[in-house]
Design a protein that fits this description.
This protein is an alpha/beta fold. It has six helices and six strands.
Amino acid sequence: MLYLLPIRSCMIRLFIIPVLFLLTVFLPIQAQENIPVWRFDTLEKYLNRQTDTVYVINFWATWCGPCREELPDFEKIHQAYSSQEVKVLLVSLDFPNQLEKSLLTFIRTNRISAPVVLLNEPDASRWIDKVDPAWTGSLPATLFYRENNRHFFEKKMTYVDINQVIIKLLTD
């Protein structure tokens, strides 16, 4: 009986180690469970930071088709630059009463781990120009900045588009 113990132990190790490895590699990304609700004055502080970090601020909503299509690319950027001075913030313009039903469901289903906030500021005319004077208010829209170097896009963006702007900001 003692002779079988080392064999069982070895077999268990041969089974458990690969399983643990596969679990760590293929575990789903943890989606954000609590979505902060911000007024514009809180967001405005985030729009004007004077640091060496590149900020990528995407304005989107779950009811916007192009927004839903581009969000996985913003998630990939968030993952790709997680160890660098690049911060992605996804600003949802969904209705606050849809937080649980639409927004959180979308975040969980799509395993979005980039920070998401819900902007609860119904009078868009009061704050849109403060994000960028050229913004008409349509979605999706994305602001990229590093210190005073700013780029604003009022269109759907791809991973390549997003990455090009980030590289430009990092090298300027």
